[in-house]
Specification:
The protein has 260 residues and is an alpha+beta fold. The protein has three domains: 2-43, no CATH class; 73-114 and 203-259, 3-Layer(bba) Sandwich (FAD/NAD(P)-binding domain); 118-198, D-Amino Acid Oxidase, Chain A, domain 2. The chain has five helices and 14 strands. It has helices spanning 8-21, 51-64, 168-181, 227-244, 255-259; strands spanning 2-5, 26-29, 39-43, 79-81, 84-87, 90-92, 95-97, 117-126, 137-138, 142-147, 150-154, 188-198, 207-210, 217-221. The strands form three sheets. It has an eight-stranded mixed sheet with strand order 2-3-1-9-10-11-8-12, sandwiched between helices. A three-stranded antiparallel sheet has the order 4-5-6, with no helix packed on it. The chain has a three-stranded mixed sheet with strand order 7-14-13, with helices on one face. The radius of gyration is 22 Å and the shape is elongated. Flavin-adenine dinucleotide is lined by residues 72-73, 98-102, 119, 121, 154-155, 196, 198-199, 221, 223-229.
């Protein structure tokens, strides 16, 4: 993946970052490979995770094993008795609530201060894929090659309009930044336009840990715009908290919101 740097300030920033991390991780290029007259920093030792594909794969696998149920559960339907949570015929010693943006204002998580952000994405098919870099490029937007001349372009940040539908403003903004990023892409057709609400938090740290009022209930939320990348590092802490009673990282611990 390349971070394109146009301004002197950007160049200074990415050159410094490359020096600090070393070329094993980040390489500065006065001219990026496969791009015309663009400078930037290229990440090494990195790959793209197809999160949607990964989730779909596990859902399918767990469904066939009878370990996954796709169903909406309301707080009022849960009952805690004899040391277990009960929901219909299912009982569980512990529960983890990971409702994403749906948790805002809902019991028993209503004290958590979400600052939700809507994001939009486009999938486009370009007429000149041979003029496109074969790796991910990022400046104001990212462009991810998906194969067959198809690219995923994202994303927008909107804190005001939290309706779930994609918007014309979002589409135009993405296309404008994409054309600035890769002017040689040629003509293109839009094949998908998606929108979703990010469960963002003002202090930019996820919400994790044991619920102060229900010790057998845990929260895993507030992953914001970087959830897919952060979860791999932080979720083992939540698992350890559940199994061994160890604390989660203090910056993520939800307990502070109940003390106020
Ligand atoms: C446009 C966009 C681009 C992004 N790009 C990146 C990126 O490049 N890298 C990165 O690391 N992250 C990225 N993210 C962020 C990442 O996708 C989020 O951090 C992540 O989706 C949050 O995950 P979550 O599981 O907490 O919430 P969600 O993905 O919202 O999942 C919550 C789930 O809970 C279910 N649910 C809610 N209420 C109930 C209920 N009562 N009963 C049953 N189920 C319920 C919902 O149906 C949903 O499936 C991006 C997000 C967006 C919107």
């Amino acid at each position: 993946m390349a971070f394109v740097a146009d301004s002197e300030q950007d160049k200074f920033h990415w050159k410094k970052a490359a020096e600090k991390l070393g070329s094993h991780w980040l390489e500065w290029h006065d001219t990026l490979p496969e791009m015309t007259e663009r400078s930037g920093a290229l990440t090494r030792q990195s790959a793209r995770l197809d999160v949607a594909g990964l989730c779909a794969h596990y859902q399918q696998q767990w469904m066939t094993q009878g370990r996954y149920l796709k169903q909406e559960i309301q707080w009022e339907e849960l009952e805690f008795k004899n040391g277990y949570w009960h929901w219909g015929h299912i009982r569980a010693r512990m529960l983890v609530f990971c409702h994403g943006a749906f948790a805002r204002g809902r019991k028993p998580q209503e004290v958590l201060p979400f600052h939700l952000t809507r994001g939009e994405l486009l999938s486009i098919r370009v007429s000149n894929p041979q003029h496109m870099p074969s790796y991910i490029v990022k400046k104001k937007v990212f462009s991810i090659p998906l194969g067959g001349g198809v690219y995923r372009i994202g994303s927008t940040y909107d804190w005001n309009n939290l309706t779930p539908e994609p918007t014309e403003i979002g589409r135009e903004s993405l296309l404008q930044h994409f054309c600035d990023l890769v002017p040689d892409a040629g003509s293109f057709e839009i094949i998908a336009h998606d929108s979703a609400i990010r469960p963002t938090v003002g202090r930019r740290r996820p919400f994790m840990g044991q619920h102060p009022e229900f010790p057998q209930l845990f929260i895993c939320n507030g992953w914001g715009s970087k959830g897919a990348s952060l979860a791999a590092v932080l979720i083992p802490e939540l698992v350890s908290c559940m199994l061994h009673g160890t604390p989660v990282h203090p910056e993520t611990d939800i307990a502070v919101y109940w003390k106020k």
